Each structure stands twice: as C-alpha cells, then as structure tokens.
Predict the structure.
Amino acid sequence: MAKIYLSAAAHATDNPTKCLSTCGENIHCNEYMDILEARLKALGFAVKRGDKSKTGSIAMQTRVKEANKWGADVYYVAHTNAGGGRYSMTLCWNNAESKKLANVIHKYRRCVTSHKVRARSDLYEIKATAMPCLYDELFFHDSAEDCAWFHNGGMQALAEETAQALCEICGVAYASNEAVTATKPHAGDAVRLDKGKLYVSSTSSVAVTRSGTYYLYDGKAINGRYRVTNAKERVGKTPLSLNVSGWVAL
C-alpha cells in the first residue's frame, strides 16, 4: 500500500489572507488537506497527517520525524503564497528524481492559469525528509480574486488534481470523483431565482430582486459570485456589457 504523509501549513503566527471570511493560510490549507486526505484514503492510500495542534518549528520537526519513522513514499506539503503573484507552484529537492515527481503534479495542475516547478534546498521539510518531498504553494492568498476562486470550488479542483498526480507517482489506480465533477459550476448551468438578488458587480452590495431562470455566463467565481445571463444563447458571448445580466451568489 502506498504511503503518503500530509503536512498542511502550520505557521506559528497564521498569515492573513484576502479571503472574504475569517481565514488564514493555516486554516484554508487544512481545509484543502481535509479534502485531499479523504480522496487519498478512498483511492486506497495509507495516509498519515501532521498534528494540527502543533505549529512552527516544533510542527515541522515532529512531522518529519514521524514521516521518516513511518517510511512514507511521498511527503506532501500544502501552503499558499504571498507577494503579488498569480500562479501555482510545486517546490522540490534539487535532484532529478524529485524534479521528475514534481513535474507529474505540473502535468495535472490544469485548474490554474499558470503552474511552475522550482527546486529549493533551504526549506526544512524538503531537506530533512528521507523520502521525496513535494511542496505545493497552491495560489497567492493576497489576491482577493484567487482567494474567492479557492473557496468556491478551487480547493476541490486542486485536491483532485493532486490525488491524480499522487496516483501516477505511486502506481495507484485512479478513479474520478464524480461528486466533484457534478457539483462544480459550469458555463450554461441554469440558476433559478425566486425573489433572489441580482447584483450589479462581484463586489457591490447593490442588487435588484428578480425571479426567473438565468444561466451562468462563464462558470467562474469572482469574490464568491458568478456572472449570469438571461438567455442561454448569450452564454460566453461578448461583449460582456450586452450579454451579462448581473451577478449571483450560489
């Protein structure tokens, strides 16, 4: 049975984010890891996960020691980034084997616009683990738009892609998660409003009350809201000003 050790962000002082709700890097990385842990177990992996109650250097040292003693096949880390970027990134040790494994994640990382693979030798979990460490910086949490995406289906999509990658890395048969595919909003999906709010933008509190059937314009969440149009033939058509009727919160 393939063994995966999971280590979510555990900063001694949690990093603030641009998420709309009370959140932090530690908080939403653990939410992401909850999803990934469940999927890996369903796929047949043996999974151990770092103690959520420990933070800082104690957390990292404890987790690495535990993973090394257990003999994990892969040590997987999940963080989110800051600094103004708009991409996803997988970090790894600077050798051919680790880069090859990190590029498997790159192969499956399709729910983001841009993904990079970079070698690092200064991060404790990467240099102290006896097994390959794959260290994800999932997205930039100082982007309000990307935070909204992550909390509206993005973390599920990322977790599913990671599960696919780990299956290939460990030689485990992958079975798709139909629930994720079925519930993810798509362009053209019907939205029924019954005296519901139709907002003028993704951030404005100004809205009109409407009843009727609308259609998701592009299926993309921005600040937790989706563009809609009042006619299916207008889905995805430009210009937006003539084809988008407003915004809804699902």
In short: The chain is about 35% helix and 30% strand. Residues 234 and 243 are 6 Å apart (CA to CA). The longest strand covers residues 207-222. Strands lie at 3-8, 46-49, 74-81, 88-92, 115-119, 133-140, 190-199, 207-222, 225-229, 246-248.
